[in-house]
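Final report, closing paragraph on structural work. Over the funding period we assembled a curated collection of sequence-structure pairs, and we close with a single example.
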Amino acid sequence: MPRLGTIFSELLRLCPRYQFDKAVEQRQGDRYVKTFTTWQQFITMLYSQVKQKDSLRDIESGLLTQSAKWYHIGLGNVRRSTLADANNKRDYRVFEDLFYHILSRCQGLTPKHRLRFKNPLYSIDSTTVDLCLSVFPWAKFRTAKGAIKMHCLYDHSGALPSFMVVTDGKKHDVRVVKENSFPMSPDSIVSVDKAYIDYNWLKSLDDNGVFFVTRAKRNIDCTVTGQHRPASKGVRQDVSICLNGSRTKKLYPKDLRLIEYHDEETGKTLVFLTNNFKLAASTIAQIYKSRWQIELFFKWIKQNLKIKSFLGTSKNAVMTQIWVAMCYYLLLTYIKYQTKYTNSLLELSRVIRETLFDRKTLIDILTIKPERILAVQEVPIQGRLF
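Its predicted structure, as stored:
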């Protein structure tokens, strides 16, 4: 009879172990380690994310109650002091590397965005996670406040965080995108808010064949160089412009497109700035409006992943927890698209949380109604040959 593990073991099998071990070797994660390996650290931290554990003691106690089901995932006794040391000392970049390996698997499954063009569509934004300055002194944000920032390149095809940078709270958004190469292929479209208006950076996007859509600043100094096309519904102005300021004109010498759009739903009039002269003005407005999806993404991870309260106070411990949390988000996304699960990610995370150590299959718990999950017979631990 075939071996049947738990839901947790199926979750771990979705992680590319070969690439993980290569990252551990590269970062020397298991150097001088005798018992609690980096893989076991990942299992434990993933468990804390799935079960929403709030403390190291809570993790230790929770795993102790499931000790009879540990052997199939290669986990031994976990002491909170051992986990704390691992989180503080082992290079968090191992889990960052794992995140991108899982991401590459997800990208082959995700559906395309729903707008009427084939260009890849992205949004860039950041969210702030507040920290207590006295507990996290390395994350100084203001005089009496600590914080970190999560900067994200959000892929609208599949709602994926396709690139992330975590910095201290003082790092300006534009500085982050200029210092880091956010991966966007030529012909991509990216929407950003006014905080990202830096004409030098916008010019670099244009040079790389990337289209941008943003809000124009109120004090933009420009000259109209031509009417782009006849105005359509909601579009009050659609013109080509060139920048007038001596510095801005030097940074961005090419023409830009300025669109004044009135949103009947909100009653607001918005002015957009873009280097895309092909798409309809109403489509440009829809692109910028789609930015709300990255805000929903930030809201979701803050409410449903453990990235606001931390198990350790060092920078390495915080970063470890964040990257493991993002790995779990990708695992949920992968399961949803691979199994064509019709309910939300929130519902999926709840189902996995409640059945994590049950000897059932993912297909069992995802293809039946939630109220019937408990009725699915669990395979007994005894009575099988392994």
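Residues 315-339 form the longest helix (25 residues). The chain has 14 helices and ten strands. We thank the funder for supporting this effort.
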